[in-house]
Amino acid sequence: MAAVYCRTTYAGLMKRSWTLGNALKQWGIRHYGSTWNALVPRWDEWRILRGLPHSSELYPVHFVFGEFVMPRRIKPYHRKGARVVVSVHCSARRWDSVWLRPDGFAQADEVILTSES
Choosing a second label site near 6 at 20 to 30 A (CA), which of 29, 68, 87, 117? Predict the structure, then answer.
C-alpha cells in the first residue's frame, strides 16, 4: 500500500513570495472547489503519480488526509494499477451534501469516514 502524505507546494513558495504562493493557493481553491484541498492543480497530482509504480495487480493508494489531499481525476491512478482510498473526517449530517458530490470523494474506489457524530 502506498500512503500519500503531501506537503503543500504553495506553502513552501509562500515563504519566498507570498504573492506567488497565495496565487497558487487560490488557483487550487478554484480548481478543486474547496478551501480545504492543499494541492496545486496538475503539479502536485503529477508529483504524486510520478512516485507510484506501474503494476498489473491492483494496489491501494491511501490519501490519509483526504480533506486536504484528494486528486480530482482518478483514472490516471487506475492506469497505474492503483485503487484510490481516501480517509476523511466529516460529520454524518454533511456527508451527502459535501463529500458525495459526483466530482468529489464519490469517485474514489473506497472512502473511510472518521466522524464523532
Answer: 117
